[in-house]
Amino acid sequence: RVGVEGATAREALRDLERRVPSLKGWILDERGELREHVDLFVNRRRQELDTTLESTDELFVLQAISGGEATLDELLVSTRKGLFVVRGARRGELEILPRQFAGLEVEYACRDRRSGCYFAAVTHGQYGPHLYRSDSATDGWQEVEGPRFPTDVDAAVERIWVVEPGAGNDELWCGVAPAALFRSTDGGATWELNRGLWNEPSRSDWMPGMGGLCLHTVCPWPDDAERLAVAISAAGFWISEDGGASWRRGIDGLVARYLPEEARQGAVDLCVHKVERAAVRPETLYMQFHGGVYRSDDGGSRWIDIGSGSGLPADFGFPIVADPHDSDRAFVIPLNSDQDRVTPDGALRVYETRDGGRSWEPLGDGLPERHAHATILRQAFCHDGAKPLGLYFGTRTGELFASTDDGLSWGQLAAHLPPILAVRSA
Q1: What angle do CA 163, 169, 174 make, to 5 degrees?
Q2: Average pLDDT of 149-154?
Q3: Residue 18 gets which letter from DSSP?
Q4: Are 404 and 91 in contact (CB under 8 A)?
Q5: Beta strands in 194-324 (DSSP E)
Q6: 208, 234 in Cβ contact below 8 A?
Q7: Which residues touch 201 (CB under 8 Å, ≥6 apart)?
Q8: How many Cβ atoms from other residues are within 10 Å of residue 394's Cβ?
Q9: Residue range 264-302, pLDDT digits in tens
Q10: What is the pLDDT averaged over residues 336-352?
Q11: DSSP state, 204?
């Protein structure tokens, strides 16, 4: 236990090196960055080097338990018949733990890595959607207060699509149908409707997609609580620069090929399927559209087509994943078309770009090559943030696949699960 000084975790570790010279080079590398297999906690939460500190904070430096090999730890697999938790070493033996919420539709489950809290959006056939929170993925689930529309709003939550940690302390965002955004400032215990988006004047013109009028994607801006973006099916991409008080559309460059050509100009019923922000360059975003793959380099105001004539067998699909370490790298899983929502040629393939979408290459070593007419939904593909990157996806036919080497090789983690709705690394 050493007393140090510093306004940020980085400054505190530099002061630690001055006070204990034998630690120099063990925690921070020669660039002043945290070493790859070192974990940093402020009090009980994993934090980054630029986290600000209070005088009473405790800073913990821990070696990764992996011994140089990142661990899978936990994978949260949401299905139509419960939540499955896959736990174990990243390249070792895995265990599927006892099912949670048996028989119920779990739309989405995730873990807030800052607090360690788990969240599960569960829909009961008769009693509708409810949000649960727990300190463990396998017990102790308790329903939280909301998200729920206030009494002066004539609407009811139909489905909870996503829970996303925000940039502020204890801040979380929740997207629901009918296309509403809720915010929590107490770690998910209570939720408040974002009135700015709900009262958007164009709302009466918004049209639902096949999954309903849903706000399925929230893209916070790292370390800036004022900047936020959301995607809605089928009402386009929306940007706020004042913490959600006001919103503007970010749709320039998107082409709705499912509309007659004469109706595309000025259309607002734009069916965005999924968007991910590039963590290392937050102004870069990748989008899977309803017919089209796009990239934006200005925070979502203008979009560039990166799906046509670039090596993809089709540019229709649902999920998209951006590499958190490389803003030029992203992954998609194409489907034939909106009329034939299965993988092309009966071959299950993930496609990767390393040049911002100018070209795409298939990654399929270990994936089924024949008679694999699979469908992967928008929330059912994720990464684990490790190096090399771990990639995980599930199909509507209940198969769960994983790669722990940047997508070069794949293996099947599970088969015969219920239809998989979402996959998230905890």
Answers
A1: 15
A2: 97
A3: H
A4: yes
A5: 214-221, 224-233, 236-240, 248-249, 272-277, 285-289, 292-296, 304-305, 320-322
A6: yes
A7: none
A8: 30
A9: 888 888 999 999 999 999 999 999 999 999 999 999 999
A10: 97
A11: G
Tokens of 74: 């936990």
Residue keyed to tokens 């056939």:
125
Q: Two tokens at 180?
A: 């509403």
Q: Which amino acid is at 159?
A: R
The neighbouring-strand residues paired with 45 are 42
SS3 61: strand
Is the predicted pLDDT of residue 76 greater than 70, yes or no?
yes
CA Rg value for the chain: 22
Which has the closest alpha carbon to 311: 367, 347, 362?
Answer: 362
Distance CA 249, CA 331 (A): 25
Q: Say if residue 46's pLDDT is above 60.
A: yes
- Judge contact between 402 and 395, C-beta under 8 A: no
Distances from the Cα of 361 to the Cα of 136, 162, 310, 364, 397, angstroms? 38, 29, 9, 10, 25
Q: Give per-residue pLDDT as tens, 93-150.
A: 789 999 999 999 999 999 999 999 999 999 998 999 999 999 999 999 999 999 999 9
* Residue 263's pLDDT band (cuts 50, 70, 90): confident
